[in-house]
Write a structure and sequence with these properties.
The complex is a heterodimer. Chain A is α/β, with parallel strands linked by helices. In chain A, 36% of the residues lie in helices and 24% in strands. In chain A, strand 9 and strand 10 form a beta hairpin. Classes of the chains: A alpha/beta, B mainly alpha.
Chain lengths: 250, 351
């Protein structure tokens, strides 16, 4: 148990007649990238919601290390060390990159009911935020407002925001979506360097990236995990091929 | 230690700020200078009316500073800030009433006497408005958007009708304050609150403190979290800060500022009535914030100056002055998104 960083145990979630998550169990070990793939409508977003805290499962548990986080809020999970990025990047666009990253540092250090000391020169906030940006090779953009950044850079900012939390696990929702081949290659490289420190649960559409990056892959179809294994095993699996070919234009 | 970090990046935003400093700083200095000097000049020329007019501008600006903290900085469009303005006013009025009558405000379970001390009145106004806002905010902030606007309006209207129908304190006729509440005497008569100029200076100090508090607050960690709650609350939660308590505290501070302005207003006019609680006033405060520039530190002041001037001088010419107010508001909304302050002082960067 202690070797597992993030673990989902028998999650169920139903919306009316639709069984969106059906008995899903997954885990994330230190030093790995575990990819979750699946065709559109397989229930990936619902599952992410239950891990990140925007949805509550009907049944089942979510553990971060040994802590049961099933009923915690998004913010509590984040403070415990669950960092995430969004499929459609979700940043405060008028603010600088630094301001976005600093918020996570701030949450980690204490509560936010500090009314007096200005943040703009608060080295306790600036330094760790700057370090997180350096890790994502973005320190040269620290004071640029987010709306001036390219799509790929925003992805990197999101990961830097998550890193500012000193996370125990990262949940990345389609980080490659909409990136060109260059951006995708760069992010792949960054994630590969990152995984040794922080294990990553990667939800991704880009198969090439998944097969290159992932140590283990789980395939989600119609709310259930139908296959599980390394990239070689997944490529060979007839059920996976069927699910993907059958649903390829869905 | 502090200067040895690789964070010399402050240079980037600083140069940006500097390019705006001259014009923005100048506009702000002129605005404050006029607000301070005109009443002083009027006082020594014997025009007490204009001193009181300036006090009125100052107090309304202070009420709008409170609302601006909720709307402009917190993104909480409250349509019920008259509740706090009026409650502050009634605190001043009721306290003076009991002090004048020498009857207790309440005698059970413990005795609360009236008071004609401004300091007591202000403290009571701030505390009671904060408590009221805590209750109203705790419920209202569970909603967003149009529902938040409506629920804050509904609470304020409840209090309005309550004041309207409570005969003890004048009901819809309002409650007069026969003698303005006083400050403790310091030797000579330097702080005679019934003197128009002294009272203006008290109000002016209150406005300056409210603006300084807002400015300081918004630069702090709390301000950073509140800004993030306004711009993207999902990002704030994902970064590990729950948006709800942050918003609630900002809402309470906002109401306390507006409530203190209400107490000053009642003492200025020597009168408090349910109209201070009505939705018309909530609407006027919103108009002032929008006119001046939403989320601008000096916006409420610029808006209040413009609003009260139009009300006073255009209102003296025609009773349809609000037609012109409407046109100005239309112009601001269409052509100067950042209000009068944005138009005069240039746009403001967040960083």
């Amino acid at each position: 148990m202690s070797e597992i960083v993030l673990s989902l145990q028998k999650l169920h979630k139903r919306f009316g007649a639709l069984q969106a998550t059906n008995d899903v169990s997954l885990n994330l070990r230190p030093g790995e990238i575990h990819a979750l793939i699946g065709p559109n409508g397989a229930g990936k977003s619902t599952l992410i919601g239950q891990i990140a805290g925007s949805l509550r499962p009907d049944e089942g548990r979510v553990y971060l290390a040994d802590t049961d986080i099933t009923h915690m809020s998004i913010a509590e999970r984040a403070r415990l060390g669950l960092g995430r990025s969004f499929q459609v990047s979700s940043l405060a666009e008028p603010l600088s990159v630094m301001r976005n990253v600093m918020m996570g540092v701030q949450a980690l250090q204490s509560h936010s009911f500090r009314f007096w000391k200005p943040v703009a020169r608060d080295q306790q906030l600036l330094k760790p935020a700057y370090e997180a940006l350096e890790r994502m090779q973005l320190s040269h953009r620290a004071w640029t407002p987010v709306f001036e950044l390219s799509h790929g850079e925003r992805r990197q900012v999101e990961v830097a925001c998550a890193l500012a939390l000193k996370p125990r696990a990262l949940l990345l929702d389609e980080p490659m979506a909409g990136l060109g081949p260059e951006g995708s290659a760069k992010l792949t490289e960054l994630l590969e360097a990152l995984k040794l420190e922080v294990p990553i649960l990667l939800i991704e559409h880009d198969m090439e990236a998944v097969f290159r990056l992932a140590d283990r892959i789980s395939v989600l179809v119609a709310g259930s995990v139908i296959a599980h294994g390394d990239s070689h095993a997944i490529k060979q699996d007839p059920r996976v091929r069927e699910a993907y070919l059958g649903d390829s234009d869905a | 230690m502090i200067n040895t970090t690789p964070l010399s990046k402050n240079a980037a935003p600083a140069t940006h700020a500097e390019s705006h400093f001259d014009r923005k700083g100048l506009v702000q200095m002129i605005l404050l200078g006029l607000l301070l000097l005109l009443p002083v000049a009027a006082y020594f020329l014997g025009h007490t009316y204009y001193v009181n007019l300036a006090s009125r501008v100052t107090i309304i600006a202070m009420a709008a500073v409170g609302l601006n903290l909720a709307i402009g900085y917190g993104g909480m469009v409250s349509f019920g800030h008259a509740a706090y303005f009026g409650l502050g006013g009634y605190v001043a009025g009721i306290s003076a009433y009991h002090a004048f009558d020498m009857t207790p405000f309440m005698s059970w379970p413990f005795s609360v006497p009236g008071s004609d001390s401004l300091l007591v009145v202000w403290l009571a106004a701030v505390v009671l408005c904060a408590l009221l806002a805590l209750a109203i905010g705790a419920i209202s902030l569970r909603t967003t958007g149009v529902y938040f606007i409506m629920i804050t309006l509904a609470f304020a209207q409840m209090i309005y009708y309550f004041a309207n129908s409570w005969p003890t304190y004048g009901g819809q006729d309002g409650l007069p304050i026969y003698i303005r509440n006083t400050l403790p005497q310091v030797g000579n008569n330097l702080l005679d609150s019934s003197d128009a100029l002294t009272y203006f200076l008290i109000c002016f100090t209150g406005l300056m403190l409210a603006m300084a508090l807002t400015s300081r607050l918004m630069k702090s960690r709390f301000g950073a979290a509140l800004t993030m709650a306004r711009l993207n609350d999902v990002r704030l939660a994902t970064a590990g800060v729950s948006p709800y308590p942050i918003r609630l505290v900002a809402f309470v501070i906002s109401a306390a500022i507006t409530g203190l302005a209400g107490a000053l207003y009642a003492d200025l006019n020597g009168f408090v009535s349910p109209s201070m609680l009505s939705w018309h006033f909530s609407g006027e405060l919103m108009v002032i914030v929008i006119l001046g520039g939403v989320g601008r530190l000096y916006g409420p002041l610029a808006g209040a100056v413009l609003f009260v001037m139009m009300e006073t001088f255009l209102g003296g010419i025609t009773e349809y002055w609000q037609l012109f107010l409407g046109l100005v508001l239309l112009g601001v909304v269409l052509f100067a998104k950042h209000g009068v302050m944005g138009w005069l002082a240039g746009s403001e960067r967040n960083e």
